[in-house]
Write a structure and sequence with these properties.
The protein is 46% helix and 11% strand. It has 14 helices and eight strands. The protein has helices spanning 24-29, 42-45, 49-59, 76-88, 100-112, 191-210, 216-238, 243-259, 266-278, 282-297, 301-308, 320-333, 350-359, 374-382, and strands spanning 13-16, 35-39, 63-67, 93-98, 139-143, 155-160, 165-170, 178-181. The longest helix is centred in the middle third of the chain and has 23 residues, at 216-238. The radius of gyration is 20 Å and the shape is globular.
Amino acid sequence: MPNQRYSYFYPTRVEYGPDVVQELPSMIKETGLMNGLLVTDQGLESTGIPDQIRQIFGESGMELVTFNDVKSNPTCDNVYDGTDFYKERGAQFVVALGGGSPMDVGKTIKVLATHDGPLEQYDDALDGNKLIQNNMPPFYAIPTTAGTGSEVGRSSVITVKATNKKTIIFSPFMLPNIAVLDPVLTVGLPPGLTAATGVDAFVHNLEAYWVDAFHPFADGIAHQGMKLCFDNLETAVGNGQDISARGNMLMASSMGATAFQKGLGVNHSIAHALGVFYDIHHGLANAALLIGTTQYNMEDEKAWTRLASIGSSIGVANKAEHVLETIESWLHRLNLPTDLKSFNIDANDIGKIEQYALSDPTCPTNSRKVQRGDIIRILERLI
């Protein structure tokens, strides 16, 4: 399909290495900016990492005020409050520290710092990206988890409370100016959260590769991203101090986010719905759904063939059945769920979960066309 039209954006500057975060203030200082807003969450505050970042900036003579009222599934109120605080304190740039939630809130504060609300007008599904101009403050991303890859992404996912709908805000202008990948900042992540976020990274790479579209850049990155996950996640879970494994997972996470410019699939569609209706951690939801959605996709011959071709990335023969069995065994070794039985999903909610998932922007790019009733059948097998 080389005669087809496609676009690929990857302009984010990535700075990787143990303790590289120490260099960020001087990088920002070079631009003449001195006052910033740190966006993080209260859970991370308890680890002391935000204190380290504030100290680093303070020692450089820079002011970094903090906004940490960020939910695990962030809402528009988090963004509005953070934007008000940004403006009140006269901040000139935004630094997001943490997992996907602070990253998403930080990116969206960046938008509303120079754009009027309400937030929902920028919904990508409504062509809201056309309203976003390149007049926003600089944004710097410091991930402390290896999963979402939001530090190199050009979108944010925010729940609009009026509609209770996860809204995707999307623009190349939202890309971070610098992504700081410092594996030292991830060593304190607990094993369970390391596993859940790591599988999120794997699913990003898998679903992106599985999308039936011509995108050789994304395919190559996704293939290597899956391999890095398989080769390193168990080590990172078992020995959190292993800097090599932690660093490789950070890379796999960023690779997944660049690869899914190609698209995602039904696993993410349902995971987004479960996040809205049951507030299930996104990584756990992805893990719990993965076997069921993979079995569903394998019913399509073209999708079956595509899945088989990733065997070499995970150390097995290029046969779809072997790939599925290997992924399932891997999830068990990581102590992650492979169904939804432990989440107490009400069977009466399956219909509205499907309705939400079908409207999610990740659903149309699934490796096989999703029909009404398909998601209900997937969920019935998993609950």
